[in-house]
Design goal:
Blueprint lengths: L1 H35 L21 E4 L2 E4 H31 L7 H16 L3 H19 L3 H24 L4 H46 L3 H6 L15 H8 L3 H32 L5 H10 L8 H9 L15 H7 L6 H12 L3 H9 L4 H12 L1 H17 L2 H9 L10 H7 L12 H33 L4
Antiparallel strand pairs: 1-2
Length: 482
């Protein structure tokens, strides 16, 4: 019977996860649709009025006619739903995939009910209904009764609690019992006070950390007056007052969509190159015996003490017209990407981390593989890489983050190209050099500038919180003595 109930609750949860995935897709499609129809106000046929992006328009949508505040409210709700639903979808998928029958408990059922309430608030009634029903299926598996039994158990439970309280009041405790209860209450009070102060301190520190990010998001959604001119800027803004048109102006008018594409291209190819060179170099220094191996590796480690800025001159000469000719001197424009990618397709620190991880793998595995006729390349791909995959994954994430944040080298390379080089700006360079001034004046449009900053910052935050466990595990594994 219990196995049947467990199979039923598991099946219901898989169906619910599928519905959650469908609604996440609907949220994303809805956001792209409504964000795509946002209009930018025009001063004339070619110039966008960036100072008055909050103008009211009437949009024809499948929901009927919507004014700008209503459209902003819908987009804001969809963003909130995505922010809540995507992490919960990942959590639910992991739990359903790994759940076993012994983990089903009344607390497990209560968690399903709580998630059902969240589904209801995110306008997902189908998942909410299934989770409410599944709550009592799990409760029947854990306690032996369902919804009716739950209602019947409330009365006896209340009577039991009341009777126990009256009995405690009527009992006359002796002196030793009273002293014991007094000590227990004192220890409980001390523990509660310590925990309260600890969590209060953590909450205060968290608030100080979160406030700058919150202020960045809020300011990026304000209009020009509230973000720049208003001497008393508001801390909170309503959903209908959020100006999502700011992000569209940044992506289209200020070309940040192109800069994001450039950054993704550089990050992808530089990461692929870094992973390839790191794996081969780490394997050679960890497992292959050749003359001067330790000396060469020591020299490479010593280069880590040299500031990276000192390599800029030699790298620049290498990629300029006196070297490969990738920049300057009538070079083909597409080679700007080569100049930004190739010099940074290797990293000594990543080679060091992965080598330390490779050295932890027992030498007996390598010798056994060689006896069986396994080549070094097959041993690397079949044994070493799977075992060291957490560290390799960590290197991948850190390299992507480093490419996303790169500034000095991309700025130098694109500066050589002048106006044409601006088409190859990365997002960090564009954030520094793009013109955020009000047309015809010297006042900075902070709402657009901070919206651009959010486009740079928010993806990194999402990547870190998504893969923080893998990043920490990978660094911890590589730090073990090999």
């Amino acid at each position: 019977m219990k196995n049947q109930l467990f199979a039923k609750t598991n099946r219901l949860e898989w169906i619910t996860v599928g519905i959650d995935l469908l609604f996440v897709i609907l949220y994303i499609v809805g956001f792209l649709y409504f964000f795509g129809i946002v209009e930018l106000p025009m001063l004339n046929d070619t110039t966008i009025d960036l100072a008055n992006l909050d103008q009211n328009y009437v949009y024809q949508t499948f929901l009927g006619e919507l004014e700008s505040p209503q459209l902003n409210g819908i987009i804001s709700l969809l963003v909130i739903f995505m922010t809540v639903s995507v992490p919960l979808l990942v959590i639910h998928f992991k739990k359903v995939k790994n759940i076993i029958i012994y983990e089903v408990s009344p607390g497990f059922a209560a968690t399903k009910f709580f998630y059902g309430v969240i589904n209801l608030l995110s306008l997902n009634p189908f998942s909410a209904a299934l989770r409410f029903y599944n709550t009592f299926v799990a409760l029947q598996l854990a306690k032996g009764y369902g919804f009716k039994g739950f209602l019947k158990s409330i009365g006896p439970w209340l009577k039991k609690v009341t009777a126990k309280k009256v009995q405690e009041e009527d009992n006359e405790d002796d002196e030793d019992t009273l002293l014991l209860k007094k000590n227990i209450r004192r220890q409980t009070a001390v523990h509660a006070t310590r925990m309260t102060l600890t969590y209060f301190f953590l909450i205060v520190m968290a608030v100080f950390i979160i406030i700058p990010f919150y202020w960045m998001i809020v300011t990026s959604l304000k209009d020009f007056y509230d973000s720049t001119v208003n001497p008393n800027p508001s801390i909170f803004i309503g959903l209908q007052d959020m100006q999502w048109v700011n992000y569209k102006a940044v992506l289209q008018e200020l070309n940040f969509g192109v800069y994001i594409k450039n950054t993704l291209i550089v990050a992808f190819f530089s990461t692929i190159g870094t992973i390839i060179t790191t794996i081969f170099a780490s394997y050679a220094f960890a497992k292959l015996e050749f003359k001067g191996r330790e000396t060469i590796f020591s020299i490479m480690i010593m280069t880590m003490m040299i500031p990276g800025e000192l390599y800029i001159i030699t790298n620049f000469i290498t990629v300029s017209k006196n070297g490969f000719g990738w920049i300057g001197g009538g070079a083909v424009t597409d080679t700007y990407f080569l100049a930004m990618i190739v010099p940074f397709m290797t990293s000594i620190s990543y080679i060091f981390f992965l080598r330390q991880n490779f050295k932890q793998i027992p030498e007996s595995l390598y010798k056994a593989a060689r006896v069986d006729g396994c080549s070094d390349f097959k041993y690397l791909t079949r044994v070493m890489i799977p075992i060291a995959s957490p560290t390799i994954f960590t290197i991948t994430i850190l390299n992507v983050i480093g490419s996303w944040n790169a500034f000095i080298w991309p700025r130098l390379i694109t500066a050589v190209g002048g106006t044409e080089g601006q088409n190859y700006w990365l997002i960090s360079v564009a954030l520094r050099d793009a013109n955020f001034n009000l047309p015809g004046g010297d006042r900075i449009m902070y709402n657009l500038q901070i919206a651009a900053s959010a486009l740079v910052t928010v993806p990194l935050i999402l990547v870190f919180f998504t893969f923080r466990k893998y990043i920490m595990n990978g660094i911890g594994r590589s730090g073990t003595k090999g």
